[in-house]
Amino acid sequence: MSSSNDLGEWYRRIPAITRVWFTCSIIFPLAVALNIVYMHQLLLIINPIIKHFEIWRLLTSVFVYFLGLKYLVKLYFLYQYSSRLETDTFSDRPADYIFCLTFLWICNIIVGLTFSMPILMISMIMSVVYIWCQLNQQIIVSFWFGMKFKAMYLPWALLIFNWIVNKSFKEDFFGIIIGHLYYFLIFKYPRDFGGARLIRTPTFLYVYLINNKKEICELYFYISLFSE
């Protein structure tokens, strides 16, 4: 009884947005494994989306994967690094984190359709891992076999490791590219090059997902200006 309570408590402590993503990434692969739904019904395939309007594929392709060790490892990275992003960089800023994940999702959809990647779970997770690593470049992280190095090298270490073990690195590579695009547009370009923010969180997200108290005041201020 105690262990189940501990598991429930751990699950409830997962940050809200990460918890939804984490849960969906368990439900869909289990549904496939239990033959509740077929894998080919969830993959990112252009013809069914256009001809039969199976638009759910745009979303389910991010959550579905084959059960196994690789899946469990990626699920662990999802939990670890999405939780860290949500509680550190995007602390009290749910609207901004929702926009971050939406931007990564849209880019992954475009890449998936362009390069025939029917499963987007790995590239989506790698995008989040890359962003966290770039924002925490000097932090020392642990890797397989006790290796330790700066976080800025972790995405590339994962790519090389997956290339050696699984003979494939396409999903990891595109995840890094997409993660870098978001990092460059949101953080690096404005901070290091003095440029303007080229993409911003839509206002309607702030209306439904109020960030912190300062932004609540700013929102009411702008509303009062427009109502005059």
Describe the structure.
This protein is mainly alpha-helical and about 230 residues long. It is built from eleven helices and two strands. Helix 7 packs parallel to helix 9. It starts with a helix and ends with a helix.
**Which radius of gyration do the C-alpha atoms yield?**
19 Å
Question: What characteristic shape results from the CA principal axes?
Answer: globular
Kindly report how far apart the N and C termini lie.
59 Å
Count of helical regions: 11
Helix content: 55-70%
User: What's the assembly state of these chains?
Assistant: single chain
Q: Provide the residue-averaged pLDDT.
A: 88
Concise summary:
The chain is mainly alpha-helical and 228 residues long.
Describe the secondary-structure layout.
Layout: H1 2-13, H2 16-33, H3 46-51, H4 57-63, H5 69-87, H6 94-114, H7 121-135, E1 140-142, E2 148-150, H8 154-166, H9 170-192, H10 203-208, H11 213-227
Antiparallel strand pairs: 1-2
Helix pairs in contact: 2-5, 5-7, 6-7, 6-9, 7-9
Which key features would you list for this structure?
about 230 residues, mainly alpha, two-stranded antiparallel ribbon, 11 helices, about 70% helix
